[in-house]
Amino acid sequence: YGVVGEQGGACACILPALFPALTQMRSLETDDSGSRAPGDGLWLLWMVVLLILGNAFCHVQGVLPHPPQNVTLTSENFFILLTWQPSLDFTGNNTQYEVEIRTVYSNNSGLPEWTKVTSCQKIKTRRAQRCDLPLSSSSAFYQARVRAHEGARPSAWASSNLLQPNKDTIIGPLGLFLAATDDNLTAVISLPPTPWADDNSSESFQYLRSLKYQVTLIEEGVELRQTELSFKEGISTINYTYSNLKHGTHYCVKAKATYQPTKESVQCTRMPGRPAGDKGILF
Fold this sequence. Notes:
- The chain is α+β, with helices and mostly antiparallel strands.
- Helix content is 17%, strand content 36%.
- The chain contains 4 helices and 18 strands.
- The protein has helices spanning 15-28, 42-62, 165-168, 203-210; strands at residues 2-4, 10-12, 69-76, 79-85, 95-104, 115-116, 123-124, 130-133, 141-150, 153-154, 158-159, 175-181, 184-190, 213-219, 222-229, 237-242, 250-257, 265-270.
- The strands form 5 sheets. Strands 5, 6, 7, 9, 10 and 11 form a 6-stranded antiparallel beta sheet that branches.
- A hairpin with a 2-residue loop joins strand 9 and strand 10 (153-154).
- Helix 1 packs antiparallel against helix 2.
- The radius of gyration is 34 Å and the shape is elongated.
- Residues 1-15 and 57-61 have low confidence and may be disordered.
C-alpha cells in the first residue's frame, strides 16, 4: 500500500507491517467453534483507524512540495537577475531554494547541462526570492531553473524564460551631467556600469558603444530638439554642447538608448543671467 504524491513522490506506508497484528486480533475474536466472540468487529474498527492515520502519515512524509511559480530572468545593464514566487500552498516552514543555470550558444547543437549556481543554494524564504546570476557572454542565451526543498523533500524544477542580454537587457539610466556657462549648455553622457565596468574590450561594453542614443533638449517644459548620438571607439563618455540658449531660462536634457529596452535619464538646470527683457528692479 503506498500513497503517491502530486509531484510523483511515493511513500511506503506502515500498514503492511501491521497486518500480522490485525490478523492476530481477528483470530482472538473467533472462538474454537469458529463463531464470533462478543468483541466481534473490533478488528475492523482498528483497521479503519489505522488506515486513516497511515494515510495521514504518508501525506505528510511522502507528498513533494509544489514547485515555485513565476520564475523570471531579467537583465539590466547586463546584470542578470532571477526572481520567483513561492507556490500557492507555500507554508514557509524550513523551505529553502536552489538554483541552476545553463548557457546556450548559437553555435551549439542541443541543450547543455544544467550547472549549480553556488551563490544561490539554500536560499531561505525569509530573504527575497531572488538571485544574481553570473554572465559569461552577452550574446548567449540563458535559462535558469529553481526548486524548493522542505527538509529532504525537493519539489519539481520550475524553469524560467530564455534571455539573451544583448537583446533583452534594459540599458540605463545613463550617466548624465549638465554644465551651463554663459549661453552654452554641455551635457556629459556616460555609459552605465556593467559586470565588466573597467574592461573597455568586453563584449558588453562593445555592444553598448555600438548602440545609438537619443538626447532631447527641453526648454521650460517644451521639447525643442532631439539628437541621435553614438560613442566613439574606446570612449565611454560623450560631451554634447547646446549653444545660444536663453539666459535665466530653465532647461532639461533627457538621454536614453534607442531600439533597445531602456531607462531614461533626466537632468535640469537654469541658465545663468536674467531672462531677456528682465531689467531687474530699479531703486
